[in-house]
Write a structure and sequence with these properties.
Length: 85
C-alpha cells in the first residue's frame, strides 16, 4: 500500500485556508469546533448529509494531524505543509 502525500500552502504558524483543505475533508469528525465563538465565518461544508458552518477558530484533522484554519489574504500563506493522506 502506497502512502500519498499532499503539499498545502500554510502560514508560518501552520494555519491554512478552508479552500486549501476542503478536498481532503471527508466526514464531520474531521472538523474540530472551537469552544469559543469568536472566529470569522469561512464557509459551509455539506458532510454526511448535514450542513456545517466553519469558522477561523476551528481546526481540521487530516490523518491525525490537527491543522488550524484562518482567514487571510493569499500572501499570508507563504510556506508549505506536507501531510500524508
Amino acid at each position: 500500500m502506497e502512502n500519498k502525500s499532499v503539499t498545502i500552502k500554510c502560514s508560518r504558524y501552520n494555519e491554512v485556508s478552508l479552500e486549501a483543505v476542503k478536498p481532503y475533508i471527508k466526514n464531520i469528525s474531521q472538523i474540530k469546533k472551537s469552544p469559543y465563538a469568536n472566529g470569522c465565518f469561512l464557509g459551509e461544508l455539506f458532510l454526511d448529509g448535514k450542513k456545517i458552518r466553519v469558522y477561523s477558530d476551528d481546526e481540521v484533522v487530516i490523518n491525525d494531524v490537527r491543522i488550524p484554519l484562518s482567514l487571510a489574504e493569499e500572501s499570508y500563506y507563504d510556506r508549505y505543509l506536507t501531510i500524508n493522506i
